[in-house]
Amino acid sequence: MSGIAIMTSGGDAAGMNPAIKAAVDHARQLGMNPYVVYDGLEGLIDGKIKEATRELTSDMIYRGGTLLRSSRSKRFFDYEFRRQAYEHLKERNIDKLIIMGGDGSFRALNDFFNDFEVPFAGIPATYLYNTLAGIIRALGDSRTPVYFLILSSLLNIVLDLFFIVQIGTGTAGAAYATVIAQAVSGILCLIYMKKKFDILKMHREETRISTYHLYRLCMMGIPMGLQYSITAIGSVVIQTAINSLGSIAVASVTAGQKIGMFFCCPFDALGGTMATYAGQNAGAGKTDRIRQGVRSATFIGSIYSVLACIVLTLFGGVIPLLFVDASETVVIHQAHQFLTFNSLFYIPLTIVNVWRFTIQGMGYSLLAILAGVCEMIARALVGFALVPIFGYIIICFASPLAWLMADAFLIPAFYYCLRNLLKAQEMLE
């Protein structure tokens, strides 16, 4: 099986982690063995290449910047160092590269292609849109970035027809169309920001480094990073327990997780929405709107949870056929069990996503990490203590138990945060 390596290069930017995960998932669908390269071009030279496991990419989309880290490299423009990088790829049977970076990165890999004929593809213009759109949303305008994205998508279609059909540039034309369309959406965001938001116009005194703001950003960012690390530890424990049950259990859970991730996308969307919404209203001192937003998001998520549960209970034995051969009856049955039991607890999952991200948006990231600790404890309990006793069936309840334990902490934590915001508001008044 041929391998493909995914890497980032140059400056850090929003949207890198989702792009990495999308590239890894698509590579698997195409039957390739995906790898990731840490520390950009420098990491490629030094052989910092690892197989892209599902555990590595499972929570990647929720994390800012790039999990793989990034760098610029002067060494890569030296032939001997490019050869060194090539040897590291050959050792792992990697014959293709995906790079996320700017012009310097692409010039470097173009030299790499000319030397060793290793084909590469890139995602250069998405960061501009993702970064600027995130800023616009944070300032309270969630609609305009969507309009620009729709325009970009329509432009992409038109340019695809132009480059591929009219000019006949083939796959290269499709690439040109995508990059141009994405760049246009980013530029539109930039123009809109300059005209619409005076708050973003930087003054000279604002260029000085503020130790207070550095502290505040670290106090919010570091706990969020630790939270996902802790969640990943719990997932590793569960995966180890699953592996101990044999290949059939592994296949069953893998199929169930693939389907479950699709059905859980709305919960992630609700969580991301509430993080932005809570941040906006906390900054404006509108605690009532935060409370109402949590109620509304929880209600929407609960309605969806019921519908998803009905679908997965009734058709959970058919959907796994997308990933599993019909002859694997045991795997299909166990995947159905996994989906059914998980879906029964989608309302607690709604609360985990909505309330935890709301707490983060309110600025209490330290409390969100404790919810992650609760989840880790629950999964560790299942993995170490219960799986040896009850076997596969308890695996189906690992995530539900983690969600319930997280909820037991998050609900009182949310009201604690609200009280603190109210007190702070009263002091200002």
Q: What does this entry look like structurally?
A:
The protein is mainly alpha-helical and 429 residues long. It has 2 domains: 3-200, Rossmann fold (3-Layer(aba) Sandwich), CATH 3.40.50.450; 212-428, no CATH class. Helices cover 72% and strands 6% of the residues. The protein has 17 helices and 5 strands. It has a 5-stranded mixed β-sheet with strand order 3-2-1-4-5, with helices on both faces. The longest helix has 34 residues, at 211-244. 39% of the residues are buried.
What is the gist of this entry?
The chain is mainly alpha-helical and about 425 residues long. The chain has helices at about 15-30, 40-45, 55, 80-90, 105-115, 125-140, 145-165, 170-195, 210-245, 245-265, 265-285, 285-315, 330-345, 345-360, 365-390, 390-395, 400-429; strands spanning about 5-10, 35, 50, 95-100, 120.
Q: Point out poorly predicted stretches.
A: none
Radius of gyration: 23 Å
Total count of helical runs of at least 4 residues: 17
Class from helix and strand fractions: mainly alpha
**What oligomeric state is this?**
single chain
Sheet-strand content, in percent, reads: 5-15%
What is the count of distinct domains? 2
The CA-CA distance between the termini, in Å, is: 66 Å
Output mean pLDDT.
Answer: 82
Kindly state the percentage of residues in helix. over 70%
For the sheet with most strands, the description reads:
5 strands, mixed
Placed side by side, the strands forming the largest sheet appear as: 3-2-1-4-5
Order of helices and strands: EHEHEHHEHEHHHHHHHHHHHH
Shape: globular
The count of DSSP E runs of length 2 or more, i.e. the number of strands, is: 5
